[in-house]
Amino acid sequence: MMKIAVLVSGHGSNLQALIDANLSGQIVGVLSNKPSAYALQRAQAAGIPTRVIEHSDYVHRAEFDQEIQAQLLEWQADLVVLAGFMRILSPEFVMQWEGKMLNIHPSLLPKHKGMHTHAKVIEAGDTQHGCTVHFVTAQLDSGQSLAQGVLDVQKNDTQDSLARRVHQLEHIIYPMVVEWFCNKDLIYHPKEHVQLKKQPLNHPIQIYETA
Ligand code: GAR
Known about the structure:
Layout: E1 3-8, H1 13-20, E2 26-32, H2 38-45, E3 50-52, H3 61-74, E4 79-82, H4 91-96, E5 101-105, H5 117-124, E6 128-135, E7 145-152, H6 159-182, E8 186-189, E9 193-196, E10 199-200, E11 205-208
Parallel strand pairs: 1-2, 1-4, 2-3, 4-5, 7-11
Antiparallel strand pairs: 5-6, 6-7, 8-9, 9-10
The chain binds glycinamide ribonucleotide (GAR).
């Protein structure tokens, strides 16, 4: 059974969706860089071990990353899932998890990397928005996209309404992709050749919002 470590910083609704999904892998630990993250309470309520590693305790990013790495090795993680983890990890760290670390980002990548994606969508007048699950590479929000949740932006949408709708899509696509990984439907080859169910995955699988 695949052992999954989930890294969080905040509310943890994606963590909850993974817990509720009855994955064929096991969530062996939840790690937060913030002691106040509500995600930690969700993990504890589900009986999952937690660990807090506060980035402010470390002068150098490399030491913070090494501490995370040590915990992941202790948990014997096969897969690292970033679920609202709001620290940028060093290239050295990321390289150790090539093909074994996933992130979810609240935009239709490659559009709107970085922060404040809902505001950027409104500002740009985009007609579509959504979220993307992708493999993590050293370049921020740039690893191969695996699945996207897609919605049509309505005239009266606000940042809050978009955030709510995007979250709902996230809770569908993240467990779906993690399950692909756990049951070995998703196979990563170096140089970013990814296969889903033995077929090359050249474009992310898109799931549309249902009314
Ligand atoms: C999610 O919307 C996720 O896409 C975003 O943080 C939120 C976490 O929500 N991640 C990023 O912005 C990463 N760059 P959650 O704590 O309720 O799962």
